[in-house]
Records
---
Amino acid sequence: MASPPFPPLPTLPKPVVSSGFRISKEQLTTVIPVAVAAVVGTYLVSRYFSGVRSGSKGQINLTVNKVSPKVVHSFDIEDIGTKAVYCRCWRSKKFPYCDGSHAKHNEETGDNVGPLIIKKKDA
Ligand code: FES
């Protein structure tokens, strides 16, 4: 029987690859759902609070002519008279005119909106 051409190599120790952090499959079945729930929960809470701040789902106009794709009012300046007060908070029952509803809106939301007042210099 012929001997091998080279002497056998000494047995080398196996390299140890470890970050010091190990997680089992059983732990993964708990960690993954908790992580997903945390991400989804954070997203839903942030969506809820962004909706609360701006009314409903980011809409400013909650009630005025909602069937129209765009609410537009136009006035001839000659017809305004000496003074006109227009709503900018979209809460007025007399929209587009201000009825003072902005005060309640500001109190409830911490907002600071008010009307647009157009008047002649003398008025
Ligand atoms: S009611 Fe809207 S600004 Fe006054």
---
Amino acid sequence: MVRARTNAANGAPQGGRESTKAYLVGSGIASLAAAAYLIRDGGLLGKNITVFEEGGTAGGSLDGEGAAERGYVIRGGRMFTYEAYTCLFDLLSFIPSLSNPEKSVSDEVYAFNDEIKGHSRARLLRKGKKLDVSSLGLSNRDRLELIELMAAPESMLGARRIQDHFNPSFFKTNFWYMWCTTFAFQPWHSAVECKRYLHRFIQEFPRFATLAGVRRTPYNQYDSIVLPVTRWLEGQGVQFLMNSQVTDLDFKHTQTANVWNASTTCATRPAPSSTWSRVISYSSPTGR
Ligand SMILES: Cc1cc2nc3c(=O)[nH]c(=O)nc-3n(C[C@H](O)[C@H](O)[C@H](O)COP(=O)(O)OP(=O)(O)OC[C@H]3O[C@@H](n4cnc5c(N)ncnc54)[C@H](O)[C@@H]3O)c2cc1C
């Protein structure tokens, strides 16, 4: 991110936003969201934002490729919830849907989930038989250890694993089987990461057995999220440089007060010989 010079007194940009430029590495949802908010809230001109993507398609992990006739290839389905994904829904609230530009993508997702409700009737199976998951199967000790994990400061948990925190019987409970198959946890994963998920998804506990809180997009997430966001950004003038891998980033202090130069080196694939540099100027409000 390359900022225009700022007014030291209040941090406001000097001379408007026309000269402010932003360069984003990768075209995953993080960069797409950053570009959208730089335009909407930061007042940047879309034409001054460049996204470098080393692959041939935008979206990063939110992949999905194919057609109804020949099938789709998708690495996985990503679940989201209304309660925990408020930032994503805010982003999608100002992106027009591709099927109906009168509606936003978030309205499209709400309407889809109002119509198609998730409700698992066989959350856990053993030897082909459906298990009764009406109880989470937690003992009082398991409950205490869960509360203890949620309350523990991260600095105290350090590099501990989940299995270092719970007694072995915890890993035989319905709760653990549902938890680890929902969020892809293993007992040797980080206790801190597990704690963060407990905080983020505690509201799912009452509907955990049916996954009723898990929301989906009408199509795969590339078609339902990445495509409308990139179309909107392109409409604003954002430049997408595909097959362009950023290989280096240098910062150089110039003699001009408070102005730095940054240069990114970017190799265009599949011909790495066409390496080129771009020089970016920005000022550091702290003078460093
Ligand atoms: C199978 C699967 C299932 C998932 N399930 C869930 C889920 O259920 N719920 C959930 O919330 N999340 C889920 N996730 C995680 C979620 O999809 C990711 O956290 C999120 O999409 C990451 O976005 P990002 O923009 O940070 O990074 P990425 O999506 O990884 O994007 C990074 C982009 O940068 C590009 N890039 C990297 N280096 C360079 C470089 N040097 N130069 C140029 N380009 C570069 C990459 O090609 C890529 O396109 C899942 C992920 C996968 C793969």
